[in-house]
Structures are given as structure tokens and as C-alpha cells.
From TrEMBL, chain A:
Start and end residues of each stretch annotated as Disordered: 25-49, 101-184
Family label: Belongs to the eukaryotic RPC7 RNA polymerase subunit family.
Species name: Periophthalmus magnuspinnatus
Protein name per Swiss-Prot or TrEMBL: DNA-directed RNA polymerase III subunit
GO terms, biological process: transcription by RNA polymerase III
UniProtKB/TrEMBL annotation, chain B:
Gene Ontology MF, one: single-stranded DNA binding
Name assigned to this protein: DNA-directed RNA polymerase III subunit RPC3
A Pfam short name: WHD_POLR3C
Protein source organism: Periophthalmus magnuspinnatus
Subcellular location: Nucleus
Residue segments, region Disordered: 167-190, 208-228
Positions of the DNA-directed RNA polymerase III subunit RPC3 winged-helix domain: 353-429
Residues annotated as domain RNA polymerase III subunit RPC82-related helix-turn-helix: 8-66
Amino acid sequence: MAGKGRGVAAFTFNIEALGISRGSMPETRVGPSPLFPHTDFKPVPLKDGEDDNYMLALKQEMRGIMQQRPHNIKPLNNKVERYTERYLKKLKVEDEEWTPDWNLFPKELMPQKKKTHSKTDDGTTENSDDEKEKKKENEEEELEEEEVDEEDIEEENDYIESYFDNGEDFAADSDDNMDGEATY
Amino acid sequence: MTANEVRLCGLLLREHFGEVVEKVGTHLLKNGPETLRTIIHETGMPLDQVKKSLCVLMQQGACTFCSGRKGPGSPAEYCANGDRILRILRYPRYIYTAKTLYGDTGELIIEELLQRGHLTMSETVKTVADRLTQNMEEGRSMDYSEVSSSFSKLVETHFLQRCPPVGVEKKASSSDNPAPPVTNPESAESFPDCYKVPHVTLIGRGKRPLVTEDGEEQRNAKKRKLDAQAHGDEGIYWQVNFERFHLHFRDQTIISAVANKLDQTSSEIVRTMLRMSEVTTAPLAPSTKPLSANEIFRSLPSSYSIQRQILDQYLSLLVDDPMEFVGKAGESGGGMFVVNLHRALANLARATLESVVQERFGSRSARIFRLLLRTRHLEQKQVEDFAMIPAKEAKEMLYTLVSENLVQLQEVPKTPDYAPSRTFYLYTVNQLPTARMLLQNCYKSVGNLIERRLFETKESKRLLEKSQRIEAILASLQASGAEPEQLTEVEEMITAAEKQQLSALRLHVNKLDSAENQVDETIFLLESYIFSTSLTG
């Protein structure tokens, strides 16, 4: 009963009723539309007021500054310093160091100072208050007298040091510095 | 988040914080909240880099953490905030607005806070004063107290707010406000002290950096010494209140729309109305509190010299305007008037949609589009007749609009078998879904613009590096007092052709950059419209 007319090219109704006559059918589409289609209408020009120019300058300045900030983390590479970078580097001295306020962030994000230190902190989130207090004091002490405190032979800034350590100790340490809850 | 948004977030993160942060950020956006261990496991990145990236993201407010979601003692989970990352696109506008409202000091305060995510008041004031001093003439300097009064003004007008307390108990602010161990990140507004300026002891003036060779080290040493001093606001961090800026943008958009549609005087009347209700109206209210014509008349700045009768005429004109910016709420007090904030946004969004269709498909397609917007549903025949466009062309335009998803097709069958001969085919435009689609297109365009800009700069990377290097050499030569011949010799290392190439590149990059800024204006309008409908709907 329902099979009638199925698969047959002819329509079972008068297509003129839809307002489509033979000549007025649009062309059938073949394949996807091109990646850069031809546009009939050109875009309107950009606004070019004083405030737009100022915002443009602000945007470019912002981008430039952000790329020099310590917030901009460079991927690790052990390549030799290229000559071309020697002069560019001069720009990047502005406040190289950035120590976040660790009161605001989870303790597990702190860069590891020493192995012994990280051994003691087994649970990051279930610390009791006084332990936290103690740790804060510890941090502050360490921040102030990091050169004295450092047992390794690093020069001055342990932050950079741990940053360059290739994550080799990650596999070994992960159980210590993580929450210690799950052992797979 | 949609794929377009994630892509744009990734590009913005890469540009501002580097590829490492981009990787962590997009991973979090795609996968939702995750623990540190999972992030490291899934991205395969070194532990230290992931830690540092998370710190950067949190410093910027682009990422939050909450602990104990899966029971007490469970590890902290990190959750990226995509909307916050997209705000990076609007940074120039925030800074510019701060400049127009509060001058250079306001500009620098907002700029510093945006660059560093959050800062204490004393840090901000010191950095800003130093920067202002640097730009002043020799022998003059900026007083800290001036900067901190600008800072307080920004807080008073809610453009700045305190960072909400984090899940970890804070030592500094615990005396009167013991922060409970929150499990979910709270909104900043729910924090009672959010707009309270702490008492800060800051006396001194901005300092000029020393220009000698070892100036950098000295400055750092000094900085460290200065940082050691207590100012009484340690642990109280401030951030930019984007919502407040957005309210300001919205008001400015409405005012300038009125100025374009009617005239300058009516826009001043609307500006007065908005300013009067700035304090009384809730931030997300659909319209302002009713204001009587008398009140408006009294609050108009005397410099406009608008007569009372003229004001009444203007108000009734504004009420009659089809854009419905101003509505009448009652008759008492010479007529009560409101500014229809949400209606205005909806109408402006509609105008944006119409102009997009007009610019992309021509004015006749726009006519069809407007016709469908106003009449809701039309059959094909009716479209052809009402738009007064020859049937064949009308069909082609209509089908193009349907294939671009700007116009939808609704089938209404007379019989349940959906037989085409017994079905009405109605064309319709749904404003909200269309606006959503357009917003996604905007995100995509900005992504494309950034991608293109990166491509352009990468293509001429060598040239850019060369010119930078030469500039550096020139600067160092000038500093050491070299001969002018030497300088010109160095300058000539860039050939004329290269110079031309460089200026062409600069032109392209400028164009792409300002296109990004201007697409963001459309994004802002559409976002506010969509957000306002989600409140009322």
C-alpha cells in the first residue's frame, strides 16, 4: 500500500502547487562549497576613529608586555642560544621573577624545594590549620633566605632551577608530592 | 563551550601566556574539572610546567579550583573559566574606558591589574606611581596618595572589586570574616567586603628607575626591600569587575544608538536618565526604575538649556520610537519614564542581524529578512509578493538565507502523512537562535583573524627579528655615544625593499588587530542580548 510510487522519480503531486516551475528551480549543488567562496559584497571598511586607533595601540602594547612577563611560560628547550636572540633578550629583563601568593593557591602547586620537604607533606587538602600555619612560616623563611637554605649548588633562584629540570624526577616523586591517595 | 570558543580561548592564551599555558588551558576547557594528577597524565607534560601554568591561569582568574567535591579530603580539582579567557579580547576597551573616566591614572591601574590578574592595593599604587613618574618631566613625581585616591574612586564606582576568598582559609582577612571552607568558588558579589577599601599606609612618591648599567639589579634589590614593608593590606587582592564595565558599555551603546537614531539632545536626555538610575537600578534589571519628567528636568545639566516643554516633546518622541529605548511607566509627576534596557539590547541585536544580512547578501535579501522578522511566518508566495521581488530572485535569496541558517523552514501538514501537496511551508526567523549562531560566527572570525595575523608575522619572522636587532644595536650605539655616520651605516642594513615589506606587514597587522577589536563590539552586544534573554526567559 505504501510502496506505491516509492523510488520513482516522478512526484505524486503537482509541484507547481509549491510555486516551483520547471524554469525556476535553482541549480543543484555539487559537493561542498569552496573554502574561500566568492563574495558578491565587499566588506565595509573598518572604523578609523581616534579611540579605535588608541585601542589598537593598547592591544598591541598589551600583547607585547604580556609576552615579556614571567606569566608567559616558554616551552622547555635545551637548544644553544642563538645569536639572533642575544639582542632580543635585553628586552626581557623586566621583573623576571614572580612569586605567587601561596595562600591563595593549593599547596600541591608549589614548586618543590627539597626532597625532604616534600616527604613531610603527604596530604595536600587535609592539612590541619596549625600545620598550614607552620608551612606558611616555612615558606616565608625560605623565600627570604633561599640562598642560605638551598642545599644544592644552584645559584640563586630555585624557581628557575626546578623549572628546568625536565620533569625527570616526576615519575619518582609523583607519589610524594601528590595526594598520596591513589596508587595505581 | 563550543569548539569555536575553545579555539579562540586557546589562541588568546597562547598569545598572552605562551604555548604551555595554552595546552593546559584548552585541555581543561575540553575536559572539565580535573585533578593535577589527571592533567599531567593526560597531557603528558612535565609536572613543573603544569603546576606553573595552573598558577598563571589562577593568577589571571581564568581557572578556579575546588577541593573535596568527591568527599572530604579528595584532591583539588581545577576548572578553567572560558568566559574569563574570552575577556582578554576586550582588554583594550576596558583600559580605554578607564582612561576616559579616570584619566591616565585610572588607565594604568586597570592596565596593571589586567596584566597581573590580581594585586594588592599597595602594589598597584606603587607600580602605577612609578610608571607615571617615569613619563613626567625630570624632577617631578607622582604622589602615592593621588594614585590611591583614584584607586578608591574606582572601587567606589565598583569598577574594581576584591577577589573573593578562596577555598583555603586566608590569614589576612580572617579577623572579622572567617572564611568558611567553601567547596564551590563563590561569586565575588556574595562576599560582603567586596567593595571595602582597606586602610593602607602608603606615604611616598613614585620613583624613577635608574638608567645606569646595574640599575636593574639595584631596582630589584630596592623592590624586595620595599616589598618587605607592611602596608596593612597584605592578602587583600583586587581584580577588575568586568560586569560593571559591561554595564557601562551597555549604557554607552544605548546612548550612542539614540544619538544615531534621533539626535544629540535626546541622547543627552537618555544619558541623564541612565546616570540618575545608575545607583538605584539593580545590575541585571530589565529596565531602570521609573523617573518622573520633573526629576529628569531637574537633573539635566544646565549647559544643555533644554526647556521643560521641549523635554516633554523629546520624551514622547523617544517613547514613540520603534526602537523602544524609553518607555512610559505611568502618568504621575508629569509622566514616569523608564529606559528599557533589555528591550534596547534586543532591538540593537536585531538591528545587528539585519545589517549582517544586508552586508553579506545585499539589501534585497535584507528586505526579505526584515519582512520575516516582523511578520513571523510567511509562505514562499507571500514572501515574493510582500517583498515585491520577482519570484525567481526571491526564491534564490530565500534559499540562500535558509542554507545559511538565517531563515528557518517550518512545515505545517494538513494531514498526518506530511504529503508535500497538503503541507504549508512557512519561512520564519528566530531572533535568539540566529543571534547565537552569529555570535559563534564572530568567535570564529576572531579566531581566524588571530590565526591570519600569526601567519603574517611568521612569514616575515626573519625580517622582524632583523629590524628588532638593528633597533637594539642602534639603541646601544646611541647610548654609548657613537658617531652619526656609524648610526646611519647601521640603519642602512635594512634595504628599501625590506622597509617596504615591513611597512606593508605593519599595515596588515594593524588592520587585523583593529578588526579583532571591532568584532568584539558585536560580540559584546550579542552576548549581552543573549544573557539578558536568559534572565527574563
